[in-house]
Design a protein that fits this description.
Length: 333
């Protein structure tokens, strides 16, 4: 039997300040997320970020959670179940979260009897803080096993046809209902230093080379985001001057990759852009960064600046074509 391990970032177990603080501490103590020296990271997370951010974040999570709990968790469980049905009895599918529950330890334990394990982090674009962290943790856990099965890792899948087709289908439904002046592709940001660290042979010219995607920058997160946007825009027949690529969710005072979404959207109404269709192609499931940040916070900022309509393209969630995409990653056609 072949094991399939689906991994997403994670979510608090509830909207209580205690659970949100617990989640933030585990998440931000990851050396690939806040990549500074260990003592500095501990002091930053435990003395500054966690105590002050947890109460505020808990209120934001209250907007996201519903009767089923966290969308990241219940949509994850749904696609794992659908993928299991699609692949059949020759495969065993397990879902784990990099932080909190269901834990990677528990998910991997379900696959211990498998002859091989294919690890699929649910992040379309590679970044050290997301996909890299999942790979790192899986190897750390599996190395303690007496018998280590064959391991396969998927690093990125933003070029997969069915991934692109799912986004295309979601967007076209909205584009039939209304005409939009502009399109914004908003991706989760990372510190600039992490982009530079991923550079092959010091190829990075920071910002100057991202618009051309190729062998030298295939693991540059910013370049992957530019290429993702180009591929989606091409399918939707959106011209180059009709869309903008931005980055959200920055943390701290160090420079993060630009341009920042909240800064850009405030300038759009003055340019005559009143109706915007927003995409979040770095996220496959509804989460705080999509539903609350892009869908609500950015909408309010845009309307306050003079905009008339800000619409978010839904995440892939449990769309059947998205499940087919995962099946093709497992068994390429």
């Amino acid at each position: 039997m072949k094991g399939i391990l689906l991994v997403n970032l994670g979510t608090p177990d509830s909207t209580s300040v205690k659970d949100v603080r617990k989640y933030l501490r585990e998440f931000l103590m990851d050396k690939r997320v806040i990549d500074i020296f260990a003592l500095g990271r501990w002091m930053l997370v435990n003395l500054i970020i966690s105590p002050f951010r947890a109460p505020k974040s808990a209120k934001e999570y209250e907007k996201l959670f519903d009767d089923r709990g966290s969308p990241l968790k219940y949509y994850g469980a749904s696609i794992a179940e659908k993928l299991q049905t699609r692949l059949g009895n020759e495969f065993k599918v397990a879902l784990g979260m990099r932080y909190q529950s269901p834990s990677l330890v528990d998910a991997l334990d379900q696959l211990k009897d498998c002859e091989s394990i294919h690890v699929i982090p649910l992040f379309p674009q590679y970044a050290s803080a997301t996909t890299g962290s999942v790979h790192d943790k899986v190897m750390e856990l599996v190395k303690t096993w007496q018998v280590i099965p064959e391991l396969t890792f998927t690093s990125k899948f933003f070029e997969q046809e069915l991934y692109l087709e799912t986004i295309e289908g979601q967007a076209k439904k909205l584009m039939k209902e209304d005409k939009y002046d502009h399109f914004v592709f908003s991706y989760h940001g990372i510190p600039e230093r992490q982009v530079i660290k991923s550079s092959v042979d010091n190829h990075c010219e920071f910002g100057k080379c991202c618009e051309e995607y190729g062998e030298n920058n295939q693991y540059c997160y910013r370049a992957q985001c530019f290429e993702s946007s180009r591929l989606i825009a091409e399918r939707l027949e959106i011209k180059d001057d009709q869309y903008t690529i931005t980055f959200q969710s920055r943390l701290g005072k160090t420079p993060w990759i630009r341009p920042y979404t909240d800064d850009v959207l405030k300038t759009l109404p003055a340019k005559g852009i009143k109706k915007v269709l927003a995409f979040s192609p770095a996220f496959v499931s509804d989460c705080l960064e999509t539903t609350v940040e892009v869908g609500e916070l950015f909408r309010d900022l845009f309307l306050d600046a003079g905009g008339e309509k800000w619409t978010l393209v839904p995440s892939l969630n449990e769309e059947d074509k998205w499940v087919e995409c995962l099946a093709e990653i497992v068994i390429p056609t």
